[in-house]
Design goal:
Cytidine Deaminase, domain 2; seven-stranded mixed sheet; 30% strand
């Protein structure tokens, strides 16, 4: 069965804005910026319609605030356009090529709320990430057999 993935341009705009604002504010120069992905899944098809920033800290025990993500998702559902959306996963803005151990920890928390969360990585410095001029520096991953693929 083929899989179709549709990413609304608003999602990419939000990620870009989140990265830019973090750089301007120069909060502790975090190597990773994290947020939530919301949308709709029909069979194996994903429709990412929105995203939002999520509180994130590299320090333990509460690295990412999953309760915040759930509450914010419910707020989006109150808007007619987003009423059928659900939390589908998270994004990380990082120059890592693959999800890291920190992403695995985020995965462990998010999967309590969604069955098979996806991870979207956006490389903010796409020198190597883009092989073709029209290609985005965005990669989607899901957990299969205990590792991201």
């Amino acid at each position: 069965m083929d899989q179709k993935i549709v990413i609304n341009q608003v999602v990419l705009l939000n990620l870009s804005s989140h990265f830019t604002l973090t750089q301007i504010q120069k909060k502790k120069s975090s190597k990773r910026i994290v947020g939530a992905l919301i949308g709709k899944q029909v069979d194996r098809n994903l429709f990412l319609s929105g995203s939002f920033e999520a509180p994130f800290s590299d320090s333990r025990p509460k690295m990412v605030d999953i309760e915040f993500m759930q509450k914010k998702t419910l707020m989006y559902k109150a808007i007619t356009y987003y009423k059928e959306t659900e939390l589908l996963g998270w994004y990380s803005i990082t120059s890592d090529e693959k999800p890291s151990k920190k992403d695995f920890q985020v995965y462990e928390k998010i999967r309590m709320y969604c069955e098979n969360p996806i991870c979207l990585l956006l490389n903010p410095n796409p020198k190597v990430a883009m092989s073709v001029a029209n290609e985005l520096a965005v990669k989607l991953f899901e957990m299969k057999g205990g590792e991201f693929k």
